[in-house]
Amino acid sequence: DGKTPLIIAVKNENENIIRCLVEHGADINKDNDYNGWTPFLIAIANENEDIVNYLLEHGADVNKSDKVGRTPLCHACEKGNETIFNGLIKHGADINMKRNGTT
Questions:
Q1: What DSSP string runs through 11-23?
Q2: Is 99 helix (H, G, I), strand (E, B) or coil?
Q3: Separation CA 42–CA 81 (nearest Å)
Q4: Is 102 strand, coil or helix?
Q5: What architecture (CATH level 2) is domain 5-90?
Q6: Please, are residues 72 and 62 in contact by the beta-carbon 8 Å criterion?
Q7: Which residues of 3-37 are buried (b: 16+ CB within 10 A; e: fewer)?
Q8: What is the largest CA-CA distance in the chain?
């Protein structure tokens, strides 16, 4: 399913391992092969604001969508997490980006 060590660490919310992997060059924007989720999308789905912010600070793509077209902003909206939503806007998320033809 293409899970990278960083994806696994984010899924398990292990911040020390996440930091170590990123410091050693792990690709923050590499998605898994199954649904196209990146470590960033997983952190948003987990509503882990600390990991979301860490990944944002280290180059997470705020507009990279998953295989069905859901952007990080879509994921934040689905969760109803205003803090993550506002952070994405602050970091340049495209509020007009379409998901499978709809905004």
A1: HTT-HHHHHHHHH
A2: strand
A3: 14
A4: strand
A5: Alpha Horseshoe (1.25)
A6: yes
A7: ebebbbbbbeeeeebbeebbeeebebeebbeeebb
A8: 39
Sequential DSSP letters for 36-64: ---HHHHHHHTT-HHHHHHHHHTT--TT-
Task: Provide the pLDDT confidence category of residue 99 given band limits of 50, 70 and 90.
Answer: low
Domain boundaries, the chain: 5-90
What's 64-91 look like in SS3? CCCCCCCCHHHHHHHHCCHHHHHHHHHC
Residue 59: CB atoms within 10 Å: 12
Q: Answer whether 0.85 is exceeded by the pTM.
A: yes
pLDDT of residue 28: 95
What would the pLDDT profile of 24-33 be if each residue is shown by its tens digit? 999 999 998 8
Region 34-51 average pLDDT: 95
Is residue 32 within 8 A of residue 3, CB to CB? The reply is yes
